[in-house]
Amino acid sequence: MSDRPDDRVVIFDTTLRDGEQSPGCSMNTDEKLRVAEALCDLGVDVIEAGFPIASPGDFDAVSQIAERFGDRATICGLARCRDGDIDAAINAVAKGERGRVHVFLATSAIHREHKLRMSTEQIVERAVASVQRAKEKVDDVEFSPEDAYRTERDFLCEVVEKAIDAGATTVNIPDTVGYATPQQYFDVIKMLKESVPNIDRAIISTHCHDDLGLAAANTLAGLEAGARQVECTINGIGERAGNAALEEIVMALKTRQDHFGLTTGINTRKLSPTSRLVGSVTGQGVPRNKAVVGRNAFAHASGIHQDGMLKNPATYEIMKPEDVGFIGTDLVLGKHSGRAAVKARLTELGYTPNDETFTEVFDRFIDLADRKKEVFDADLAALMEAKLSGAGLANRERWSIKSLHTSSGTTGVPTATLELIEAPAAGSPDGDGEPTIHRDAAIGDGPIDACFNALERIIGIEARLEDFVVKSVTRGKDALGQVDVRLYAGGRDRHGRGVSTDIIEAGARAFLQALNRADADRQA
Ligand SMILES: CC(=O)SCCNC(=O)CCNC(=O)[C@H](O)C(C)(C)COP(=O)(O)OP(=O)(O)OC[C@H]1O[C@@H](n2cnc3c(N)ncnc32)[C@H](O)[C@@H]1OP(=O)(O)O
Ligand SMILES: CC(C)C(=O)C(=O)O
Ligand SMILES: [Mg+2]
Question: pTM for the full model?
Answer without folding.
Answer: 0.84
